[in-house]
C-alpha cells in the first residue's frame, strides 16, 4: 500500500494506469496526451509543482521519446488541485509475468466495462452492492423493486422435474412461443406473415447470441459502426470466417447512423450489418421512418443484425410503454434476412438470469441452434420456464411504461446536474433512449478533457465511468482508427438507482470544483 501525495507518486500511479490499457489504446492515449499538452498551453504554462527529476515544461525539443512521454504524463497526472492523497495500491498488470502460462493468450484485452471494474477494484471498489461507490460504468439497470408500477422482482424460481433436464439449444418451446407471440401482438398485427416458435432461438445472454451469429455467417464483409458496444470487438476478432469493416461516424452529428453511409457500404459489397439500435453508447435511436428505409435498402441484399436490447428504453413517444423494433418493418419473417437480439437483461431488469433471444428466418434459427450445441450448450432451463409469464403483451406494455417514466426522470436529473456544471446539451446529444450519456469533456481544462485523466480523477472520488476510447472497435487492427478515437468522451450510465446517481454527480462536481472548472 502507498499513500499518494507527491507528484512523483501521482505520475507513477497515472503511468501504471495507462500501462494496463490494451496496446492500440495505449498507443493512441500517448499520441493524444501529446496533442492535448501542446494544444492546451503551447507548452508555456508553468506547473504548480514540478518534480526535481522532470525538466521544466518549456520545450519538448531535444528529448527522446521516452523522456517526452514521461514529461507529458507528468503534465496531466500531477494536477492534483487540492486532492488528498489516497491509501491505494498501484494499478497492476493483468497477468503475473513471473508465472509461466503455456498456450495461454496473455495479450487478450479486457472490454471497457471489465477494465474499469478491474481498475476500480484496485482502488477499493468491492463490487456490486458497495454503497461507498457510484458505479456509473456498469451497463445494467437497477434490478430491485424500486420502480413505481413495475412488477415485483422474482425472489424464487420453481424447479420442476422437466426443468432439471437439459433444455434444447434453441430454448424450450413454451418460451419461444411466448417471444413470437409478443412480437406478433406488439409489432406485426397488420402483417400476414407472423413469427412462430421456429423463428426464435433462446440464448444464454446477448454475448452468447452474438457469438452464435458470428459462427454461422461466412465469406462476407460485415460492416459495423463506431462508436458502438465494446464487446463487439472481441466477438468480431475471434472468428475468421468473415471480414469485419469498421465505419466511423461523425461527431458533428452525434454519431447518427445516416442511411447514405449505409448505401455506400452496400455499394462496396457489404452483405452483413451489425448495429445496436437504440445505440450504445450515444443513447440515440433511429426513427421509425429511418428503420423502414433501412429495411427497404437491405431486403434480400444484406443481413441486418439488430441489437435491440435497449428498444424499450424509448422516450420520444410520451413514455406510454411503446417501443421501437425492426420487427415492425419486416415483410416476410422467413425471407427478410434480419436477426433481432433482445432479452430479459435490460427491459425486464433481470441481467443475472442470462435469458435472451434471437428472432429471424427459420433457416438462420436452425443454424443458430446447431451452433449452440458446440458453443454454449443452451440457456438455463428453470429460468426459461419462469420467464414465459413475463411476456404477456399487455403486461409488458404496462411494465415498459413504468420503466420509461422512471428512467426518463433519472436521465433528466443527471442532465440537469451536468448542465449546472457547465456541460452543454441539445437535441442531438440528449439521449432519447437507453440509459447512457455520451459525455463530451472537450471544454474541460487540461487533464480532465482526456477520458483517461477524467476517469483517473473519478476513481479518487469513488465514481466509475467508461473512457470513450473503449468504444473504438478495431478487431483486427487493420487501420489507424486511433486517429478518430474518442479521447474526449466518457460514457455515463444512469442505470443505477437514484441515490447512486446523486453520489456520482456529487463526485464529478467535486472534481470540477477542485479544477476551478464549474
Can you put this structure into words, describing what you see?
The protein is of the alpha/beta class and 518 residues long. It has two domains: 2-139 and 441-514, no CATH class; 162-398, Type I PLP-dependent aspartate aminotransferase-like (Major domain) (Aspartate Aminotransferase, domain 2). Helix content is 36%, strand content 11%. It is built from 14 helices and 14 strands. It has helices spanning 7-19, 23-41, 65-77, 112-122, 173-187, 206-216, 232-238, 259-267, 288-298, 362-375, 381-387, 393-420, 451-460, 498-514, and strands at 2-3, 87-88, 134-135, 200-203, 221-226, 243-248, 272-276, 303-307, 338-343, 356-359, 436-440, 463-464, 466-467, 489-493. It has a seven-stranded mixed beta sheet with strand order 4-10-9-8-7-5-6, sandwiched between helices. It has a three-stranded antiparallel beta sheet with strand order 11-14-13. It has a two-stranded antiparallel sheet with strand order 1-2. Helix 1 (7-19) crosses helix 3 (65-77). The longest helix has 28 residues, at 393-420. The radius of gyration is 24 Å and the shape is globular. The protein starts with a strand and ends with a helix. 44% of the residues are buried. Mean pLDDT is 84; it is low at 1-6, 39-58 and 86-90. One of its GO terms (biological process) is amino acid metabolic process. This is Aminotransferase class I/classII large domain-containing protein. Residues 1-26 are annotated as: Disordered. Belongs to the class-I pyridoxal-phosphate-dependent aminotransferase family. InterPro entries: Aminotransferase_I/II_large, AspAT/PAT-like, PyrdxlP-dep_Trfase, PyrdxlP-dep_Trfase_major.
Amino acid at each position: 500500500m502507498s499513500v499518494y501525495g507527491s507528484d512523483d507518486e501521482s505520475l507513477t500511479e497515472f503511468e501504471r494506469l495507462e500501462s494496463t490499457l490494451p496496446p492500440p489504446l495505449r498507443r493512441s492515449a500517448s499520441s493524444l496526451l501529446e496533442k492535448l499538452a501542446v494544444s492546451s498551453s503551447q507548452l508555456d504554462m508553468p506547473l504548480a509543482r514540478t518534480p526535481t527529476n522532470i525538466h521544466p515544461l518549456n520545450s519538448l525539443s531535444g528529448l527522446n521519446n521516452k523522456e517526452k512521454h514521461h514529461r507529458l504524463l507528468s503534465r496531466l497526472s500531477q494536477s492534483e488541485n487540492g486532492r488528498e492523497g489516497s491509501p491505494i495500491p498501484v494499478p497492476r498488470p493483468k497477468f503475473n509475468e513471473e508465472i509461466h502460462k503455456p498456450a495461454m493468450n496473455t495479450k487478450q484485452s479486457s472490454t471497457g466495462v471489465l477494465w474499469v471494474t478491474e481498475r476500480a477494484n484496485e482502488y477499493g471498489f468491492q463490487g456490486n452492492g458497495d454503497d461507498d461507490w457510484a458505479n456509473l460504468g456498469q451497463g445494467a439497470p437497477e434490478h430491485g423493486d424500486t420502480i413505481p408500477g413495475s412488477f415485483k422482482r422474482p425472489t424464487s424460481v420453481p424447479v420442476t422435474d422437466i426443468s432439471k433436464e437439459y433444455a434444447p439449444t434453441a430454448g424450450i418451446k413454451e418460451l419461444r412461443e411466448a417471444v413470437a407471440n409478443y412480437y406478433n401482438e406488439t409489432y406485426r398485427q397488420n402483417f400476414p406473415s407472423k413469427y412462430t416458435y421456429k423463428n426464435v432461438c433462446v440464448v444464454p445472454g446477448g454475448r452468447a447470441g452474438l457469438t452464435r451469429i458470428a459462427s454461422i455467417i461466412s465469406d462476407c464483409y460485415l460492416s459495423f459502426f463506431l462508436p458502438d458496444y465494446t464487446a463487439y470487438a472481441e466477438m468480431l476478432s475471434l472468428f475468421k470466417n468473415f471480414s469485419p469493416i469498421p465505419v466511423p461516424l461523425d461527431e458533428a452529428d452525434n454519431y447518427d447512423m445516416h442511411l447514405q453511409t449505409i448505401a455506400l457500404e452496400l455499394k462496396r459489397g457489404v452483405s452483413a450489418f451489425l448495429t445496436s439500435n437504440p445505440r450504445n453508447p450515444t443513447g440515440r435511436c433511429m426513427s421509425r421512418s429511418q428503420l423502414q428505409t433501412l429495411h427497404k435498402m437491405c431486403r434480400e441484399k444484406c443481413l441486418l443484425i439488430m441489437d435491440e436490447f435497449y428498444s424499450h428504453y424509448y422516450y420520444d413517444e410520451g413514455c406510454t410503454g411503446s417501443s421501437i423494433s425492426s420487427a415492425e418493418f419486416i415483410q416476410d419473417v422467413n425471407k427478410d434476412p434480419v436477426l433481432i437480439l433482445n432479452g430479459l437483461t435490460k427491459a425486464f431488469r433481470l441481467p443475472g438470469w442470462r435469458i435472451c433471444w434471437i428472432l429471424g428466418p427459420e433457416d438462420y434459427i436452425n443454424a443458430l441452434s446447431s451452433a449452440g450445441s458446440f458453443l454454449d450448450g443452451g440457456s438455463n432451463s428453470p429460468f426459461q420456464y419462469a420467464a414465459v409469464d413475463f411476456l404477456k403483451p399487455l403486461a409488458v406494455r404496462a411494465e415498459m411504461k413504468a420503466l420509461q417514466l422512471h428512467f426518463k426522470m433519472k436521465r433528466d436529473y443527471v442532465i440537469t446536474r451536468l448542465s449546472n456544471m457547465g456541460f452543454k446539451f441539445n437535441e442531438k446529444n440528449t439521449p432519447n433512449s437507453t440509459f447512457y450519456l455520451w459525455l463530451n469533456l472537450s471544454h474541460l481544462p487540461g487533464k480532465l478533457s482526456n477520458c483517461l485523466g477524467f476517469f483517473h480523477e473519478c476513481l479518487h472520488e469513488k465514481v466509475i465511468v467508461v473512457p470513450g476510447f473503449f468504444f473504438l472497435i478495431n478487431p483486427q487492427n487493420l487501420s489507424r482508427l486511433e486517429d478518430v478515437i474518442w479521447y474526449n468522451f466518457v460514457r455515463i450510465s444512469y442505470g443505477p438507482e437514484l441515490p447512486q446517481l446523486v453520489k456520482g454527480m456529487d463526485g464529478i462536481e467535486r472534481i470540477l470544483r477542485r479544477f476551478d472548472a464549474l
